[in-house]
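User: Hey, my collaborator sent me this sequence without any context and asked if I could get a structure. I don't really work with proteins. Can you help?
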Amino acid sequence: MAKASSISKKTAKSADTASTPVSDSRLKEFFCEELKDIYWAENHIAKSLPKMKKSATTPELQTAFEDHLQVTLGHISRLEQIFELLGKPVRGKKCDAIEGIVLEGESIIADTEAGTATRDVGLILAAQKVEHYEIATYGGLAQLATTLGLTDAASLLEATLAEEKESDVLLTEIAENNINYEAAEE
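Assistant: No problem. I've predicted the 3D structure and written it out in structure-token form, which is a compact way to encode the shape of the chain:
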């Protein structure tokens, strides 16, 4: 219990000191590098969503992928705003994690039969892996922005985090409403 108490004191202390933006530090440098990583990831995801839509069988899933492309373009725009707020050039840095998850999604497409609910189940699973990576990344970045006193950046990151969580819930609902059950009958 003493450990939780010390964490609460640290949290209160950090909230008090976060009002002044940190100019240069290793943490801010790390934050900027991670922004480059997720910027590359979002652009890579945007390129993969049309293929996922085309490979999906059900209109509901196709629409979800189409809508998420528009949402993803908004995420890219928010990240560009954050780079601008920081006075940094808009640049991506290859994200090996998203590249691997997207390749896994392409493998699912190759390994499942077109026009089947089983393929849609695989596409949903692949998309949720992407969402979970993004949720973890945006959650961490929003907290780092707060720690660094970058309140505008934190707000933008939190808005994106909320949208990523909504996308994950939507994918779960699509799967649970019928696609999983249809696949079980194939």
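In plain terms: Residues 1-18 have pLDDT under 50 and may be disordered. You can pass these tokens on to your collaborator as they are.
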